[in-house]
Amino acid sequence: MLCLVCNQTISNTTTWNMLFSLSRSQHKSPLCTECMQQLEEISGEQCRLCSRPFSKLAAKYRKGDLCNDCFIWEEQPEWSGLLERNLSIFHYNEFLKEVLARFKFRGDHELVNIFASYMRQKFKQISDRKNTPIIIPVPLSPERLYERGFNQAYSLASLLHFPIDDILERVHTEKQSKKKRTERVLADSPFSLRHNIQRDRYANKQLLLIDDIYTTGTTLRQISKVLKPLSPKSICALTLARG
Q1: CATH number where 190 lies
Q2: Which pLDDT tens digit goes with each residue over 88-109?
Q3: What phi, psi does 182 have (nearest 5°)?
Q4: How many structural domains are present in the chain?
Q5: Which of 214, 179, 207 is CA-nearest to residue 193?
Q6: Are strands 66-67 and 62-63 parallel, antiparallel or unpaired?
Q7: pTM (global) more than 0.70
Q8: CB atoms within 10 A of CB 185
Q9: Phi and psi for 212 in degrees, rounded to 5?
Q10: Fewer CB within 10 Å: N-end or C-end of the chain?
Q11: Which residues contact 23 (CB under 8 A, 6 or more apart)?
Q12: Collapsing DSSP states into helix, strand and coil, what is residue 216?
């Protein structure tokens, strides 16, 4: 078996890291030990709302159990309380940045399998048997979807093996990765609900947004504002990386 990232043969040598992965996923990792060790899972003290690790944040940018960004979001009545919480799995380090670039922009869709066990494990922290949230992937515009051939958020959501409600639409805008931080925050929302959805299905339900990267939180809050008229019980998010 070859590693999905470096294409080296995966050794049969058992390490503690591999045993930990096996105990969570119940199958062998598609990564070699060297590549697996470059995935940095977020741990320790972090922002209550966005999972930003405080270990990588100067004290002056922290407000109690919130990072400064989330504190500012919550100070604005327009945005306060819209997004209950985002859970991110990994630090957005150089290794993951390259993996996601191959996945999203170079059409290497098989790389999504790297994240299967991690997504399912984090999902268990959000859901339970009685209250499984409704899964909603962050959409791409039709133009971007045609360009890439798939929606990375939908692919990540599919790893959870639960029904997916693809109820959002997105108009075509400049790539988020090309925008400056202030441009992302100030941009008009490109999101809307699809027509003829069953609106009462979402009343008093837990909604879970799925995306690849949390950067400023603008995208998830714009979507939360679109979903709020459906009267959900809560809106949370699960993202692969915290940028």
Answers
A1: 3.40.50
A2: 999 999 999 999 999 999 999 9
A3: -65, -35
A4: 1
A5: 207
A6: antiparallel
A7: yes
A8: 15
A9: -85, -45
A10: N
A11: none
A12: coil
